[in-house]
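ligand=nicotinamide-adenine-dinucleotide
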Amino acid sequence: MKENSVPEATVARLPLYLRSLVDMTERAVATVSSEQLAEAAGVNSAKVRKDLSYLGSYGTRGVGYDVEYLIYQISRELGLTQDWNCMIVGVGNLGRALANYRGFGSRGFRVAALVDSDTAKIGGRVGDLEIEDFEDLERIAKERQVSIGIITTPAAAAQGAADRLVSAGIHSILNFAPALIQVPDDVSLRKVDLSIELQILSFYEQRKAAFDSVRRARRLTGSAARSTRP
Amino acid sequence: MKENSVPEATVARLPLYLRSLVDMTERAVATVSSEQLAEAAGVNSAKVRKDLSYLGSYGTRGVGYDVEYLIYQISRELGLTQDWNCMIVGVGNLGRALANYRGFGSRGFRVAALVDSDTAKIGGRVGDLEIEDFEDLERIAKERQVSIGIITTPAAAAQGAADRLVSAGIHSILNFAPALIQVPDDVSLRKVDLSIELQILSFYEQRKAAFDSVRRARRLTGSAARSTRP
DNA sequence: ATGGGCTTGTGAACGCATTCTCAAACCCGA
DNA sequence: TCGGGTTTGAGAATGCGTTCACAAGCCCAT
Ligand SMILES: NC(=O)c1ccc[n+]([C@@H]2O[C@H](COP(=O)([O-])OP(=O)(O)OC[C@H]3O[C@@H](n4cnc5c(N)ncnc54)[C@H](O)[C@@H]3O)[C@@H](O)[C@H]2O)c1
Ligand SMILES: NC(=O)c1ccc[n+]([C@@H]2O[C@H](COP(=O)([O-])OP(=O)(O)OC[C@H]3O[C@@H](n4cnc5c(N)ncnc54)[C@H](O)[C@@H]3O)[C@@H](O)[C@H]2O)c1
């Protein structure tokens, strides 16, 4: 009766709210209105209220939301009341950076295993973790109770890595390789693609440049004088 | 008359199509139907046709699209016919990984400058680039004609970094720091937030776990017998 | 106790994106 | 030259997410 499906767009914003709320507790703010939270998270206040209403009625009319309580509720909804073990597949430039990243564990995500297929790398260490053999992926995943797989192999190896993660019983995958990978329906797959982000920026940058040069040309030829009013 | 605004959602998919098309030329495919391209990019074919129709009528009915020609048109639309210079602000774990990343330049993005505020790092090298002083950001950006700024500083320093990039005349920023940053309207800002991605995965992972345990409980108590048909 | 001022929670309107659908257009073989 | 098979391009329908708008509900001062 109470709850079912939270819209995907809302799920994606809950972490934003959470971050803002945690900032607030650090500044000893006890209560927050949807307006204030909206400002902090960079969205509009109706959105905040609607999003939070999917989780339940945790606000007080005329007052706002209790910061601590809301942190708890959002954390619970996001599954952050427990820790999650992650495995990084492919320990190159990027995999190493992720493995070294503190502030990972800060919200309950623990890098529990690193695997690579390069025999020159296996046995090496990153921080206090050993790089292990990709071939042992299933065993390692089971032993360490890994539930999230992070793929940082070259694109060509990404599908293979995903297949192995799935066969190890992992249902959540974050892919950094610029490749489309297929997983069964019951596996969540998210991707982060830097190159796509840059191309999107480039699209808008070009638009701006084109627009500017039109303006510049107009100014030079004096055609700006042909304005709407004759 | 011909073209105006391409929807944002379409812009975000053009790089995907482009990647698939480039793969195809490498496999010597000359012509592609919307159906095939859709399959390769992991979307539906009506979407492909509608997206491409925003750029113009580049297909041939009964035949499909010419792969080379489509690559050229999409590249042009995305502004990839020219090179773009990027500056990385904050050369730590992540900044260093990005700086070392080849496959960056592969599609016209060149890391042209690295800056950091840590005097211990300034003067050091990453690959063939020197780490320079954050204080000289404006001068460096101008000299190297940087048009894209990449922020990989700690969250607390991200807004400051963005302000300096903006004051250097940069209109496109990619932010990796987990912080909300404000920029003027004429600046494009995109963010990549690993921690948010993990939290989204955690949300669905938890749902799956909850659902599984319900199923397990049902099976044990035999209540699955109370099915829809009596 | 009561009224005034705030803020939530949510129906309703709106807008954007996706998907369905099919006439129009093209190629090719007979 | 013509007709059958194929595929595009775009209008229409649908669905999802955002935003508006306001009644309901809460707190506090009087
Ligand atoms: N480095 C970056 O900044 C960056 C940025 C965006 C995207 N990416 C993408 O992330 C991925 C990794 O990039 P990188 O720069 O770290 O590359 P890299 O070559 O430095 O590292 C890749 C690692 O994967 C390992 N590997 C290869 N095949 C494997 C397999 N089948 N199983 C397990 N491990 C395997 C290699 O041994 C290597 O250690 C690439 O797909 C790249 O396109 C990287
Ligand atoms: N490392 C990762 O894998 C990872 C993953 C996701 C997000 N992030 C985020 O990316 C950012 C960088 O992460 P990191 O692990 O590389 O951190 P890091 O501490 O290794 O590097 C940060 C760098 O920024 C520099 N810096 C600090 N203040 C600066 C300023 N005002 N101007 C210029 N440079 C400044 C520091 O000297 C340091 O070199 C952080 O915000 C982090 O949360 C990192």
